[in-house]
Amino acid sequence: MNLESVLIKLKKSYDKNIPELNAYRNKVYPDFVLDNRIEKLVAEIPVFTFHSIEPVEFEKQLQFLAINNYKTLKADEFYQMLIGKKPIPEKAVLLTFDDGWASMWTYGYPLLKKYGMYGVCFLIPGIICEEDRDYLNLDDVWEGKISQQELIDRDKTEQPYCTWREIRHMASQGTIDFQSHTMYHSTIFISPQVADFFHPGFDSYAGNHNVPIFQTHGVDNVSRQAELGTPIYTHQPRMGGSLRYLDDEDLREKCVEFVAENGGEDFFSKSNWRKELHQVIENYRSKFGERGSYESQEELEKAIFNDLVESKRLIEEQLGTVVQHLCYPYYVGSQIAVELSEKAGYVCNYWGLLEERRGNNRVGDNPFWVARLSDELIYRLPGEGRKSPLEILGRKFIKNSGRLVAKLV
């Protein structure tokens, strides 16, 4: 990984995590996070967010919950408590897992079973594969079939997500409750302004999540496998509610052809490669004008609604369960997405930290605005082994930055 890529990743890490430090500084976290004197939760249910699971740290978090007698909930159980149909236990939490990473099968599922706990996993059904093979997990280690060192970390392989076979098995055991994270976890272009170009150092992320969905011959290319030189316009998560900008495919092709004709991947070794591609765009638009277009409000609403309906339908079809809970990718939604999710049959929408809620979820709160906290804040729950906010957030920043810098050496 080159310096530019690391710096981009560091900035993204900073942009993603700085709201947590600001939230602590501005006192928009729940009282149990801010005040060491809080000795118990009172009529509230903290919801914590995980992504890919690190087994050692995750087991420590489960041990903390177990030692302090916290009860983990399932999604429908949480919803019933939120609307007042079931009483809230003093020590109840909801553990949520976004995306359906393979580590859910490799580590999360076995460890949750080990401690008799539950999790809610928000799937992206449009990118899940069907495979016949059984991948190894911690159960195989504990049964003596393989050593810990032989356990493959699939997050670094060509198959970073759980398969339908694994998901069906986990769902059948009742340990993990699978719900919706939208159909494709997509972002869309929202203006003709170029933010970047697809290049060898572009952070496409697993499943090409960081590449906005674009059209090929007028049809959405949901795989998002962009060619070198593809313009990346300013973009936003699909559920954010902005009108989608449909880029000029001919202009895109001009940029791709220019890169191919000028060395392909070697073209990006030039210090001014971006300037050259911007010049291609300027020349094209001076001749043909700006030929991109925007979807209509009606098309926007239809696209969001169809995404939510199809995601729900596909998970239900695969698992034989009822899907009623939606989590917004990137923690970004909109009022129109909320309204359409209810129309599509969802009863709960999950976000990130909601400042107006201070991260709390209490009886009577709107279930379409569920606030979630970073998983590190589990250690701020009242109980034995509680950690300070500085220890938690400082360690997180150091860890994330250290990983990226380490890729340079």
Would you give an account of this structure?
The protein has 409 residues and is an alpha/beta fold. It folds into two domains: 3-183 and 303-406, TIM Barrel (Alpha-Beta Barrel); 188-296, no CATH class. Helix content is 38%, strand content 15%. The protein has helices spanning 3-25, 31-34, 55-67, 75-82, 103-114, 138-142, 164-173, 249-261, 273-288, 297-319, 335-344, 389-406, and strands spanning 47-50, 71-72, 92-99, 119-123, 176-180, 187-197, 214-216, 219-221, 231-237, 245-246, 293-294, 325-327, 348-350, 373-374. β2, α4 and β3 (92-99) form a beta-alpha-beta unit.
The amount of beta strand, in percent, is 5-15%
Alpha carbon gyration radius: 22 Å
Number of helices: 12
Which spans have pLDDT < 50 for at least 5 consecutive residues?
A: 402-409
CATH homologous superfamily of the largest domain, by name? Glycoside hydrolase/deacetylase
**CATH domain class name of the largest domain:** Alpha Beta
The percent range for helix content is 25-40%
Mind summarizing the main beta sheet?
6 strands, parallel
What's the number of structural domains? 2
What do the pLDDT scores average to? 91
- Output the structural class: alpha/beta
In N-to-C order, the SSE pattern is HHEHEHEHEHHEEEEEEHHEHEHEEH
Please name the CATH architecture of the largest domain. Answer: Alpha-Beta Barrel
CATH topology of the largest domain: TIM Barrel
How far the N terminus sits from the C terminus, by CA atoms, comes to 9 Å
What is the number of E strands? 14
Q: What is the 3D form? A: globular
